[in-house]
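LAB NOTEBOOK - FOLDING QUEUE
OPERATOR: T.R.
BATCH SIZE: 2
PURPOSE: Compare the predicted structure-token outputs for two unrelated chains run back to back under identical settings.
PRIORITY: normal
REVIEWER: second-year student, initials M.K.

ITEM 1
FIELD SEQUENCE / FIELD STRUCTURE:
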Amino acid sequence: MSSRAEPGPRERLVHAAQRLSYTHGATIGVDALLKAANVARRSLYEHFGGKDGLIAEVLRRSAAEDEADYRAVFAAAGDDPRERLLAVFDRLGAVVSTPDFRGCRYLAADLALADSAHPAHAVTREYRERIRQLLDHEVRRLGHPDPGRATDQLQLLIEGVLAIGATRPGAKHAESARELAKQVLDV
């Protein structure tokens, strides 16, 4: 008979912080995190050096998951770079229409964490740069005459959908952004 091992304190902290920081923001209190994870305060400091380290780790983990999602969307859309890029907006439409969508966790963290030296800011910058590189690769494969500008415009549309999707749920922001993306790509 096999028994399933319960996650340790580190994983419980990450899981609780990933959930709570998304629903309540990156400024969620330490006591709430500890209670949700059912761990002692000592575990937070042993594994992450404090709440700042935990929030940065949560963003790193989320960024890896989200980057994998972009790659999966590209793969599912086939080999045509235009279709791969437009598929991102179809995926965004599905994401922002879920009942528990609360906006872009990276933008929320950047806005909530006033200290410019907070380690979360480095994570969000790196994440955005990796997404930019994914987009840029596809734009260049498409043979766009101004790939840098087109990539910037696509990233602006993506981040706009994620931002406005939280403040105006129910509207078809991703569909509108997809139409604009077509204009960017069809130059």
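ITEM 2
FIELD SEQUENCE / FIELD STRUCTURE:
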Amino acid sequence: MSPFSRPGPRRGTTEQQRPASHDQASRSCPSHTSGRPPTGPVEALREEVAQLRIAMERRPVIDMARGILMARCSCTEDDAWELLVDVSQHSNTKLHDIAEAVLATVHGGPLPAPLQDHLAAAVTRLRTR
């Protein structure tokens, strides 16, 4: 069996009990880069490649922001990640935007006030666990 082939149905499951395949799920989800769902397998792969390229471009900024938070908040890598995710969820702000704002503080700029408040609250939640 190839690592890319799909396994057959599991014993004891009916068609209604089986989860939707990845192909079915990707057709129902809107596309994030072009604004429309992919129309075929080639377009779906192009869309995925575009999304992966964006993620690869943003990852270094996120990693640097994690390092800054680790130094400033005396926390672990995982805790710094949790802080970024927590602030993102509570402020309804994209994680990479928060990471860019944290990175900008290295050059003397302040963190925007709403993000300061959310970060302080996230640190408090982290410390009280």
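REVIEWER COMMENT (ITEM 2): Helices lie at 22-28, 41-73, 77-91, 95-104, 113-127.
FOLLOW-UP: none requested
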